[in-house]
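If it is no trouble, can you show me the amino acids of a protein and the tokens describing how it folds?
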Amino acid sequence: MSTRIVVMTAAEAGRCAELEELLFAGDGPWSAEAFRNELAQPHNRYFVARDEHGATVGYAGIALLGTASDPESEVHTIGVDPALQGRGTGSLLLDALLREADAHGGPVFLEVRTDNEPAIALYRREGFETAGIRRNYYQPSGADAYTMRRMPEHGQPEGQQP
């Protein structure tokens, strides 16, 4: 399967909401309106994965936060059609997010369900480490989440020397 990662548009919000229902039905999936609201924020960057037929098969978003002297980023979401998981689409989406984060500077944070081993493995491969745990983070299921952090490419927090 050939997958392209492109910038998300508001027209794709409905399809992303459909995928949210498939992926996160027990944890308050985002609506199309929620995706449109996220796209409207100037500090957010969202992408979709399209298959060889142009169909949206995944999505991802990140917020570029902080100040110029103290930047950080937060991964908001990554989702891939369940029928296509395990084929590298999530990695491609995460790569797009991390390119944005690296250009912005600073550490990158995210939350991931503690039982989502494939996602945790992906994040670890990309340099994320567990920074803590958030009990009952996902609602309404009450599932716990790890907070994970990836330091800037040089491995030191902004403004610190090795």
In short: The chain has one domain: 4-150.
